[in-house]
Amino acid sequence: METIITTDITTEDIESAYLRLKRSVYYENNVLLHLKVKLAEFENEKELLNPNKREIFFNKFRDEVEELKNKNNSEYFNNLFQEIGSKKVIKKLNEKVDKNIYKIIEDNLEDLKNPEEKEEFFSRLNKKIQEDLKKDKISYNYFIDCPIELHILSVLWIMKIGYKLDLELDKNDNIYSYGYRLDMKKDLEIIKEKTIFKRYPIQYQKWKNNGIKEVEHILEKDENAVIINLDLKRFYYNIDTKLLKDKIKKIDINILNSHLTEAIFKINEIYMEKFIIESESDKDFKNKRYKKNILPIGIYSSAILANIYLKDLDDLILKMVSPNYYGRYVDDLFLVFIEYNIEETKNKKKYIEKKLGKLLKNEISDESPKKYIEKKLEETLNDEALEETFKKNIERKLEKLLKNEISDESPKKYIEKKLEEILNDKTLDETQKNYFKEKIEKLLNSNILNKIGVSFDKKMLSINTKQKLFVFEKGKGKRELLEIEETILKKTSTFAFLPNEKEIEKLYKKISIENEEDEKNKKHDVSVYLAKLLMAFSNLENKKNLDDLKDKLDEILLFFEEDNLIKYYMYYEKIFLLLIIVGNIEKIEKFYKRVLEYFAKTDDASLIKNYLKDSFCFALSLNPTLIKNLKKIDNDEKMDIQKKVENIIKANLFKNDLINTSLLSYTKFSDKEILKFNFLEDNNFKIDKQMELDKEKIILSPRFIHFNEFNAFYLNKFIFLFNVFKDFDFYYESLKYFKLNYKKSIENKVSFTKNITLISEIDKLRFYKITSDNLHISKKIKIGIASIKIKEDLKETLKGNNINLLEKEKITEILNLAKKNKVDILVFPEVSIPYHWLGFLNRFSRENQVLITGGLRHIFNPKIQYDNETPEYVYNFLFTILPFEQEKSKMSFMTLRLKNHYSPQEEKIILGKYYAVPTFKNKKYDLFSWNGLHFSNINCFELADIETRSCLKNYIDLLIASVHNRDTPYFKNILEATSRDLHVFAAQSNNSIYGDCEILQPTNKDNMIMACIKGSQNDTLLTEELNIENLRNFQLQDYNSQKEENTYKPTPPNMNRQIVNCRRNNSLDKYFKEIKERNNNFLIPKKIPIGINDFKTLIENNYYYIDKTKYIEDLLEDGSEVILFTRPKSFGKTLNMSMIKYFFDIENKEENEKLFSSLYIEKSKYISEQGKYPVIYISFKDLKAKNWEDSIFKLKNQLKDLYKQFLYLKDSLDEISQEDFNKIIYMKEDANYEYALKYLTEYLYKYYEQKVIVIIDEYDSLIINSYENNYYNEAILFFNNFYNSALKDNKYLEKGFLTGILRVAKEDIFSGLNNLEVCSILDNKYSSFFGLTEDEVLKVLDYFNMEYELNEVKDWYDGYRFGNSEIYNPYSILKYIDKKEVGAYCPITINNFLIRNSFENLEKDLFHELELLFTDQETKKTLYSDLDFFDNKNTQNIWQLLVHYGYLTPKEKIGRNFYTLSIPNKEIEEFLKEFF
């Protein structure tokens, strides 16, 4: 009995399958444009942006997939199967006939010597063939057209089953299959941010490059090398389904038996049936063999199945043909051989036949060459216009040809004959002949090729224009190889360098010339030309500067005429995009109509109309405001276009790389607002204060959103809303949303902790440390200084005159030079870069790992009125983009700094135009550590400030100055002095009109200038290598050694070698943290945290903190599920619970992480638990009321406020849970308040897929109050259910922590809570978690420079005994530091109901016993950790209360539950004396 594979499928699997499908479709070329449209419609129809509806759909889909296990009898999927059809897609224009046909005829026309007769004959023959072509002008491919749900199923099959087939291709490390390979980690996890398959450019380049490396290796051995490049013809239409199943069965029968695999084959079978009907009229598919052997194109499961189908062919080629290299990219084969006899390669066809034997045959079309030629010759001779005499002459001369002398032998005989020729080759020695004979016999025996499903008599391989042979002769072949390498590089790295005007013009000339170029290459050139135009002309500020593009568009529209409309139909979207950038509605509509009119003459008008409309919609998505201006398109069609555009924008499936404002399409906006956005414009000043990123759009993004995009979005808000952000808030907000790229299960593990360190508390400096994984600290750095003309006239700028194409070309040329010269750092001058170009600079920096810094053009709102009462600011920013690598992914981090000192002339112009100059009280400069290099950047006039320069001393290796200054001698002197005074390399980039771009080193005057450009008419890049290691090593030497070496000038006074060493070890961040801890006036002194109970407030506001984070380790190692801590008031219970909350809380993980910087836990292995869990924190402090009604009202309010903290959960809940949630929020009477805490843990668990930590502070406050006011029974009944439901047997609970003063008697509130551990003041466990130990007290007293007598401090505030620890009261110690004298400060009071109530029943003997304690005597009592409120006549209770409230302390444990008690210290004694 066959085994059926069972696969557990989760909702997250379905979501992951959908996202991978969406991301893969997004990156597909426009052949699958119909699928993109269908996907956008599907997503909006199912309302997947609504998390609740998304979850419902994914859950339902998961359930339906499970139903497939029932012999595929799922009604849901059966209905979907019935919707399968085929989509006809243009393949090519049939404008040429195979030249082999003419060649075969010409070879048999030897008797036709008369040139005129020959020309006349061929003219008429060609006419007949062209008539055939006109009948079938267009060839088509057929793609599967099926519901999106089946595409999701296809991807799910790949994730759960198909990946096993993919792994088979790489068995024994024999990697020869490159196309459509799964993008998987070693542990087979397919992470969310990936598409399904490895990206085409990378895989294609590997495929070809590995073959070329083998050719290089052969040439190095001084041998001849040959490349054979072939592709399988119509491969997807020649796959035997039965044989495919047999292949899978041999690999693993469980794969074949899976219900998912069965579903995939059912899709294939139904498609095959539909294809037979729908392709009936297509001449290319009349041959019935196509009907039975077909794999659907356009569904991703087919790629896996196609690869595994060809695995046997791969193995056979490797075994039988034995190439030196073999690689296959889907159906393209690339083989490399050593060739000893170079002469044989001159006849390409014969050579390939010799090499591949049975793997090739000599057919030209589906009918044999003989039959086709006979038919054409007969038609030519029957031409009525042909003269009789001429006709007879031709018949006589073609007699041989017509009498069956054209070979039509069977493929088997033909190949056998060719193989025999190999064996008769005189150049073969006996050994080689035997070797070939053995291989040939194996090929011919047992019909081996048919067995593996590659029946070459069915025309699987073609010798036509797609077949290529390259020969490389030893000693001569390197040049030819270099040309091929350049061709491959050109195709796979088209956009490695940014386009310029000359390159674009050259490319246009190439495509506009009619030639015999390979059509595939020409299509590539057309695509590249249009794409480079888009890249060059996007992001230009002023549309008046688009005249160049208008001219080019006229050329393009002339090119896209007649047959070119068919050949290059895939590029309609790019044409529309260019027209939309210009905004010419008339030309847009004209082109639209032109295409429709041309195709109206064919039988396929409706097919191209749909494709044209889809292309138009994708282009319009970037500027939907144009829809209302369309005049020549009727209203119904316009409404259809509008709906499609809305769907595409909501699904974010359009070209996001052309959007001007970062992540604008990922913000929250209503359906009504969609058509109001022109995404191609500079929308920065349109950013609304309420504009926020839409979490759901990010989760469903069709592409991985890079960190720098979030970074740019929040910097946008910082600049254009002119908010005063706290240091680095933009970073933490960016990281929070960046995590949404990842699956929920790993989202909270995503962190740049090892890559990015930020410190802001340094005087005058902000420190950024950016490092890549596996960092090797740079010893040398190559720097590039841009020398470019900047026509920045601030007066003109403030009038609104904007950037043009010429200026953009300057920047792109500099970027290209930076890449060619392999610079590490690129520096631009001040005011050189428009703000909205930061997006493409970020991409360049990230992809090429080049640090870029420079000045932004002035930023201001040009639309304000001059008489505005509140002038708008004009901002001058420096930008710095710092690339890094994290887990093999390329990232970049960007920061901006406002210019601290505007020049006098700059201020004068700004104020004169009714604008304002921004100023900050606390001026800060940026200090960067990037991959081990330490540098800072200065913005022009700031260089003149001596304080600016001096604050950087010791901390940097390099000072970068971006300037726009005509007073070059003055700035040159400053820069030279700075280089020597700070002992650093210095680099300056200035406007080339003024000159003096230079790179300096701290040497004597003669050697100081390493490189310099005085000024130039041409834009250029000044480069130089800086030996950072040498400079640091020199600085670490003593003065005499420096003088002796004389490499640089000796270091100036007060050069701190400790800091130099920190730079060398890349540990400057640790140095700053140590300085911070020592508080040596470098940092602001800590404040005294009296009454501060919130951990975040305490840390962020520079309050002194006694580090208790060591106890986080203990809590994590503690096996107890729920822990109750009981301590007196003012011993830090609330602060410690707050600290626990901020450590574990999954919300704001990155922001909270910095709170623990320099604390014990930061270096613990348990730091990995930081930010891992959802946390519920609730406090019942001060929740007092006179009766139960008021009390429950306050409690409901408290729960309402708690739920409001988690409003974001609501959309993810099902309808019933949403209703329950709302009842709590709106304080409905029928809300289930007793289970409110339990329900909230469930909601959080389902949202984060992580168990929840519950923290309840002062749990007993309300209960004690209820006892005082006579509603204890009601309170106990409520809280028994409230606490037990949340803390007992709650599968959503990770841990629970409670604090209070007392443990209420077990039989009341905690009945049944058997997982509770109580840690009271009587227990050793956690004894020093609350309050201060003596060491901690000494440390804090020393910090605040207190002059004290320790014995006096101990007498007043020590004396508490918690377990085995001696504890001080922290509140009293802080008050003592504040007041600078001892006194009674503890806020405890005897005015406590429980104590007063007990005292009323106090017997005289007990009263006397208490009085004796004032004489330093002790008493011995039995103590327990819990309390029975109703047993107030029990004299034991008074001792319990006095100990737990802190009036007495257990000095020593002398027996089981038996202790000696005393007054802890003078402070408490003072309070007790007042009472008695």
Entry keywords:
alpha/beta, 32 strands, 1476 residues, single chain
Give a structural overview.
Helix content is 45%, strand content 13%. With 1476 residues, the protein is an alpha/beta fold. The chain has an eight-stranded mixed β-sheet with strand order 7-8-14-15-16-17-18-19, with helices on one face. It has a six-stranded mixed β-sheet with strand order 13-12-11-10-9-20. The longest helix has 21 residues, at 115-135. It is built from 60 helices and 32 strands.
Beta-strand segment tally:
32
Radius of gyration: 40 Å
Low-confidence stretches: 1-5, 97-101, 186-193, 360-370, 400-419, 435-449, 454-466, 492-496
Overall mean pLDDT stands at 79
Structural class: alpha/beta
Side-by-side strand order of the widest sheet: 7-8-14-15-16-17-18-19
N-C termini distance: 90 Å
Shape: globular
What's this model, at a glance?
With 1476 residues, this protein is of the alpha/beta class.
Break the fold down into its secondary structure elements and pairings:
Blueprint: H1 11-26, H2 33-45, H3 51-67, H4 75-81, E1 85-93, H5 99-107, H6 115-135, E2 138-145, H7 148-168, H8 200-220, E3 224-231, H9 241-251, H10 253-257, H11 259-278, H12 289-292, H13 301-309, H14 311-321, E4 325-329, E5 332-339, H15 348-356, H16 369-381, H17 388-397, H18 399-402, H19 411-423, H20 430-444, H21 448-451, E6 468-472, H22 477-492, H23 501-512, H24 519-537, H25 547-559, H26 564-567, H27 572-582, H28 585-599, H29 605-620, H30 635-651, H31 695-699, H32 707-720, H33 729-738, H34 744-747, E7 756-762, E8 765-770, E9 780-787, H35 794-798, H36 805-820, E10 825-827, H37 838-848, E11 851-855, E12 877-886, E13 889-898, H38 904-912, E14 925-930, E15 933-939, H39 946-950, E16 958-962, H40 968-981, E17 985-989, E18 997-1000, E19 1009-1013, E20 1020-1027, H41 1028-1035, H42 1039-1045, H43 1057-1064, H44 1068-1078, H45 1095-1100, H46 1110-1117, E21 1122-1126, H47 1133-1144, H48 1149-1153, E22 1175-1179, H49 1188-1204, H50 1215-1225, H51 1236-1248, E23 1252-1257, H52 1261-1268, H53 1272-1287, E24 1293-1300, E25 1303-1304, E26 1316-1319, H54 1334-1343, ...
Parallel strand pairs: 8-14, 9-10, 10-11, 15-16, 16-17, 21-24, 21-26, 22-23, 23-24, 25-30
Antiparallel strand pairs: 1-2, 3-5, 3-6, 4-5, 7-8, 9-20, 11-12, 12-13, 14-15, 17-18, 18-19, 27-28, 29-32, 31-32
Helix pairs in contact: 1-3, 1-7, 2-30, 6-16, 7-11, 7-13, 8-22, 19-20, 23-24, 24-27, 25-27, 27-29, 28-29, 29-30, 32-33, 51-53, 52-53, 57-59
